[in-house]
Amino acid sequence: MGGMNKEPEFIDNSAALARPEAFVSADVDVARVLESWRLSLYSFEWLLPDGSLKFAADLPEGEQAKRRAVEEALERGEALEKPVLGLGLQETIEIGSGRAVFLTLAAKGAQVLPAHILKSQMDDFKAFIAQV
Fold this sequence. Notes:
By secondary structure, this protein is of the alpha/beta class. Helix content is 31%, strand content 19%.
């Protein structure tokens, strides 16, 4: 994972484990995902209007706590759940379960991250899959 000192370990997300037949795991291009997610109704909590990630201190209080929890898990060397990505109503990426994991690692310089994607949406995700 480019830009990070220590590679975190990832485990399957509990949301994907509940429906394993519906999801596939894939490595996604963080910059491309953020570019699309920028148009999400929920991106304002983590992104500035120009699409760059906010500093931790600028996040809403609840999101600061989520980011701190991810950072603390990283410091302890704990495995992180893979984020779940999907397409929203506006055909933009939505980050479901694991949003704080994805965005905290993005803020720390991750260029590629593993994620769960609905099998039924894989064709629409081809542009977001990392070319490793």
